[in-house]
Amino acid sequence: MPDRKFRDDPLPRMWPGAGPTPDGTDESDAERRRRRARFLRDLAEARALRDRVQPRRAKTARLRHAMRMRTFRW
């Protein structure tokens, strides 16, 4: 995860294939999956950064999640 100051992509509304194209066809499934994968990578990167910057909050969140999992009933 390289540190970067700016996003590589423009805003989502400016992405090519966001919604109908000028010829009236919708974006392809492959393009949508690529954008979704990119979003999930960025989200994971942001979570990892937050965990590094706020270790006490991350530990508390892990413990809280573990407690929820232990008390969950099927």
Please provide a written account of the structure.
- The protein has 74 residues and is mainly α.
- Helix content is 57%, strand content 0%.
- Helix 1 (29-53) crosses helix 2.
- The radius of gyration is 18 Å and the shape is flat.
- The chain starts with 28 loop residues before the first helix and ends with a helix.
- The model has no long low-confidence stretch (mean pLDDT 79).
Mean pLDDT, nearest integer?
79
Contiguous helical run count: 2
How are helices and strands ordered from N to C? HH
User: DSSP strand (E) fraction?
Assistant: under 5%
Q: In angstroms, what is the radius of gyration?
A: 18 Å
SS-derived structural category: mainly alpha
Residue ranges: pLDDT <50 for 5 or more in a row?
none
Main beta-sheet annotation: none
Share of helix, binned = 55-70%
3D shape? flat
Number of strands: 0
Report the span from N to C terminus. Answer: 37 Å
- What's the oligomerization state? single chain
